[in-house]
Amino acid sequence: MKHTNRISFILTLSGMTAALALCLLQTGCGKKEGGGSGETAKKQTIQNKGSDTMVNLAQAWAEEYHKAAPDVDVEVSGGGSGVGIAALEKGTIDIANASRNMKPEEIATAKKNTGKDPKEFVVGYDALAIYVHKDNPMNEITLDQIAQIYAEGGAITKWAALGVTIPGASGDEIVRVSRQSSSGTYEFLREHVLNKKDFKLGSRDMNGSKEVVELVASTPTAIGYSGMGYATAAVKMLKVKKTAADAAYDPNVANTLAKTYPIARSLLVYTLGEPQGAVKNYVEWMMSDAGQKVVEATGFVPLPAEARSKR
Length: 311
Fold this sequence. Notes:
alpha/beta, D-Maltodextrin-Binding Protein, domain 2, 2 domains, 11 strands, 35% helix
């Protein structure tokens, strides 16, 4: 009888061990998601896509925010404002970065596809800079001259038409460096400087803002446009004036905030409807003092104090 009881006890203990092993192989056994002592915190991922002008800023934001919120991963990709907005229209991302405003038809498509209206947030500012090679003697340019260089039917094709001689250059033809049509920067220049005219054919169309500046830096006869945050010692940012009779202004923080630089613009993020949870917290952090320090550190213009969130 005692022998039988011992066997029964061993079988019972073996069964409990097997059950415990099975339990440990299954998720959630004896643990709760969501943090707390001895608990497993649930990781959250925010999908963020869009503007190439903003991609360096977005990546810097993501890295800095992860220090403040280790349980949140922000996955950043570029492709252009149009690419980010198209993904938002389909509901496949959480946040779209844009260096231009969404168009009415894009807003309508997003509402049709997802049932939600896009929500716009201004998260900083940028001066759209006109870049030339550092050895180019030109120092300022008018909006009409930019349009005459870039717009279809524009009369300016050579530096001589601007009274400029490029030191050491073998030719006088202006090399126009531009962006692809999915770029918000491309759309902004077309709308605000070219008066919605098409671009001339034959420009060198680059995938990103950095590539524009790099090509201008290596091409003495080139001109290009890109965000002020991409300036290097190898290029020069021209002062811009509305007309020949107006004052010319540098693309810098003070002139952007004072709205005297003629082609300043907002840096935007869009969500589908009012953001919730982790996305809401992240957008608020972007607009806080901590997030705006990153804006300034990456060469853009931060929000004034009164426009920042109190997070």
